[in-house]
């Protein structure tokens, strides 16, 4: 009986020590996705600082959809360009900040980012803030925003 218990303990220890290769790949892929998202987010608002829509547009996949509050969905890079222009010219956005609170998924094809955002005017004053969900897509050009949905915390 003691011999069977000892063998069972060894087998259980061996099984627990074995790593799931699929899980290891997913963990590595998710960490790479998180890093790419952080890098993209770090330069996103440079587009407003420099008034350069190409920086903004390059954050998005070609088949992206921006789902802004109180607006119809905006499809593709042309719509992203119009969205940038409106944010810059009509709302006076000149800088901002993303605060990622979580990233979900396996990192292989899609991941979802959850977080908070802040928008600043030309005086560096906070004029809007809110929350967002972004579905990121792995493309041949790297991780790009595929679906961008956000809303303000400000009351209308």
Descriptive account of the structure:
- With 156 residues, the protein is α+β, with helices and mostly antiparallel strands.
- The chain has five helices and six strands, in the order H-H-H-H-E-E-H-E-E-E-E.
- It has helices at residues 2-17, 21-44, 46-49, 53-57, 76-89; strands at residues 60-67, 74-75, 95-104, 110-120, 126-139, 142-152.
- Strand 5 (126-139) and strand 6 form a beta hairpin.
- The longest helix has 24 residues, at 21-44.
- 19% of the residues are buried.
SSE topology:
Elements: H1 2-17, H2 21-44, H3 46-49, H4 53-57, E1 60-67, E2 74-75, H5 76-89, E3 95-104, E4 110-120, E5 126-139, E6 142-152
Parallel strand pairs: 1-6
Antiparallel strand pairs: 1-2, 3-4, 4-5, 5-6
Number of strands: 6
Radius of gyration: 21 Å
Overall morphology: elongated
Q: Average the pLDDT over all residues and give the rounded result.
A: 89
Helix content: 40-55%
Look at the helices and sheets and give the structural class. alpha+beta
N-to-C order of helices and strands = HHHHEEHEEEE
Distance between the termini: 73 Å
- Strand ordering within the main sheet: 2-1-6-5-4-3
Assembly of the depicted chains:
single chain
Number of helices: 5
Biggest sheet record:
6 strands, mixed
